[in-house]
Amino acid sequence: MEPSFVTNLNHVILYSRNRADETSIQSELLAANRSGLTPPIRIDFITAMKLCLLLLGVLFVTTSTSVPFGAPQKADEYRQLKEATPLPMVLDPAFEFRKTKLLFIGDAPPRARRGGEFTGGNIRDESVGFEPAYRLFGAITDLDRRLRFGHYFDFFWKAKRDAVVSVRLEYRQQNLRGFVQAREVVYPRARGSHKTEFQVVGEDFLNDGRITSWRCLLIENGRIVAEDKSFLWR
Fold first, then answer.
1. Which residues belong to CATH 2.60.40 in the chain?
2. pLDDT > 70 fraction of the chain, expressed in percent and rounded
3. What are the φ and ψ backbone dihedral angles of 178, each rounded to 5 degrees?
4. pLDDT digits (tens, 9 = 90+) for 3-33
5. Burial code of 118-156, b = ≥16 C-beta within 10 A, e = fewer?
6. Rounded to whole angstroms, what are the CA distances from 57 to 21, 50, 52, 62, 114?
7. Dihedral angle of Cα 107, 212, 174, 103, to the nearest 10 degrees
8. pLDDT band at 2 (very low <50, low <70, confident <90, very high)
9. 79-107+149-229 fold
10. pLDDT tens-digit profile of 62-89?
11. 3-class DSSP state for residue 143?
């Protein structure tokens, strides 16, 4: 920088101009506040905040209400029905059972023995005992183990569209002859793949005996849209 330029620069005039600009800006803001008007900068900030609050409200409403594009809701707790009411069957290809897994643990559950064999048969595959061991895990006393004896049902099914679906298990037990009992689970929004578990164990099993036949139903609007059943079900 040229020394002559710095020497000839009038700092007093430059400082006076800056002070004048700041004073004029402050005067405009003060006049706007006195007149009840909001400065343009504050107007933009308030508008942006209102827009953010509006977006948050829309997001809260869409996630808290049952809308078709929401995620599938979890099932409600199962309930024991007083009576298995007959329903009309209208099969729908949008609903289907994909797989069914059954497990029975009786009075003498399989226990590992030397050579990998199990009591009650000549099964040598050690993986067969994994599922009973999983169900009995944590049962310390004989009473704890007996309360876990019974039938375990795992139903894998799929719904290709949004619907309120009830999954019902109907079954007959040995000591009750032809009397049909039923348990039901409701899915408020059931689109997608699901796994529904039923257990008839403990006192229900020890008092009423083994299950002789069963069927599982997918129910929509009071109609049976899919069915899976045992060979002996009539």
1. 79-107+149-229
2. 64
3. -90, 5
4. 554 455 554 444 455 555 566 656 665 665 5
5. beeeeeeeeeebeebeebeeeeeeeeeebebbbbbbebe
6. 43, 11, 9, 9, 65
7. 20
8. low
9. Immunoglobulin-like (2.60.40)
10. 554 444 444 455 566 778 998 889 999 9
11. helix
Q: Which amino acid does the sequence have at 202?
A: G
For 6, counting Cβ atoms within 10 Å of its Cβ (0-12 exposed, 13-18 middle, 19+ buried), the class is exposed
Burial class (CB in 10 A: 0-12, 13-18, 19+), 32: middle
pLDDT for the residue 132: 86
Do 153 and 216 form a contact (C-beta atoms < 8 A)? yes
Which pLDDT score, from 0 to 100, does residue 232 have?
Answer: 93
Q: Is 206 helix (H, G, I), strand (E, B) or coil?
A: helix
Grouping H, G, I as helix, E, B as strand and the rest as coil, residue 229 is strand
Which of the pair, 213 or 189, is modelled with greater confidence?
213
